[in-house]
Amino acid sequence: MSESADLLGHRIDDPLISPLGAGATPRKTLDNTALFTYDVVP
């Protein structure tokens, strides 16, 4: 078995298994910039 097959599902850009569809990765779920905005203190 190769290293790539052993680590499948443990890396930040590996696809997640989801009933909602394909295309999600851990990196995408951790990126909340589209959901939240923050004020800028001058």
What is the first-to-last residue Cα distance?
Answer: 55 Å
- The structure class reads mainly alpha
How much strand content do the residues show?
under 5%
Give the oligomeric state of the chains in this entry, treating copies of one chain as homo and distinct chains as hetero.
Answer: single chain
Q: Count the strands?
A: 0
Radius of gyration: 15 Å
Largest sheet features: none
Overview features:
42 residues; elongated; 2 helices; mainly alpha; 21% helix
What does this structure look like?
The chain is mostly helical and 42 residues long. The chain is 21% helix and 0% strand. It has helices at residues 3-6, 26-30. The termini are far apart.
How would the blueprint of this fold be written?
Elements: H1 3-6, H2 26-30
Summary, kept brief:
With 42 residues, the chain is an all-alpha fold. The chain is 21% helix and 0% strand.
